[in-house]
Amino acid sequence: MTTSSTAQFPDHFLWGVSSAGHQIDGGDEHADTTFLEHVTPSVFKEPAGLADNSWNMWQTDLDLIKDHGLNAYRFSIEWSRIEPEQGKIDETALDHYDRQIDACLERGITPAITLSHFTAPDWFARQGSWLNPQAADWFADECTRVMQRIGDRVALAVTFNEPNLPHILAMGGLPPEAIELQRACLDAASAKTGVERYRAGNVAIPEEFDELENGFKKAHRAAVAAIRAIAPTVPVGLSLSVMDDTYVTEHGRELCQQKRDACYGTWVDAVQGDDFIGVQNYEQLVFGDDGIIPPAPGEPVNGMGTAFRPESLAHSVIYIHELTGLPIVVTEHGASTDDDTLRCRFIEDSLAQFAHIVRDGVPVKGYFHWTLMDNFEWISAYDSRLGLCSVDRENGTFARTPKPSFAVYQHIVETTVL
């Protein structure tokens, strides 16, 4: 495996937080996810609405990042805002991201962007989304116009966020009723729009998983070429959802390997030549003879129902580096819990082991915690809390209040030598 000879990472370790536009911005009325939130039945518990109002409060968010000693911020560039109708470009949206990049740099914050964090334009979904043969070209055009505007100041570009998620969820024990609700949601959207297949990146059905992922892979390669044509010194890659898959029996080992082959192994060829690969880790899965072993009775669990396992981050980073040969950026890591004491302990224990492998020479360029503040967590809406800050949505102020875990993370950043 080789990386681009021209790409240059920042000369400092990136300590930051990650976010996604649909989950925090609010008001992206031309997004496919917004449309899917309003069909019946919908797989989404409720619409995102104004989310955290970050489209208007983004400077407050950047101040929080700076004030807590972080030097990097990963956020998404929302295609549906830039091209709300096919062929019609909204320059004011590009202006918004232009200002946001400049404001990051003014605060000493390294900007890292994601070009596709699940959401896409509604017009794109009506034409089959990533299943459409023209999808890669359309996405490459979007990457070109974005990089033409801000590529001279971006330090890192992620093409796709977790494009392996459909297989991850299916092999991680997603209940059949959840899969069928996604099917019903897509059927409702297709019927409402009068198209054959209304499709989206994070609402999928099993018989289309391979076709969807092939669409992502083709679009990723087109995006990498487009980005390098405009900004050859910007490191580019994609991020994968990575669970720390382990086992306790021989048959469990076989099941674990099947999971790894289906969810990660198929991406090795697609990322060859990239400058890095993003690892997004939240949990560990332990396989036994009968499949995934649940947590022990009374063991604290996160919002995903799995036990807090701090070693999962370091294990996942080592595995993906050995699998691909690429440098690593931890583009997401965190814990869904209402108990911030558990989050504090999880951050401390996870990053202690993570720092150890970095010092031992595993080529890791940065760590982005998910996430800055409680936000819209897709199908669970606002019931899943992963933020370092709480947000007052009830009173409409959207005031951000840092949790103790933010201070814990700040202390680690300020005292850890890598």
Automatic annotation (TrEMBL):
Stored Gene3D superfamilies: Glycosidases (3.20.20.80)
Gene Ontology biological process terms from the UniProt entry: carbohydrate metabolic process
Molecular function per GO: beta-glucosidase activity
Keyword Transport set for record: no
Pfam families the record matches: Glyco_hydro_1 (PF00232)
Keyword line: Glycosidase, Hydrolase
Family affiliation: Belongs to the glycosyl hydrolase 1 family.
Protein's name in the database: Beta-glucosidase
Species classification: Bacteria, Bacillati, Actinomycetota, Actinomycetes, Bifidobacteriales
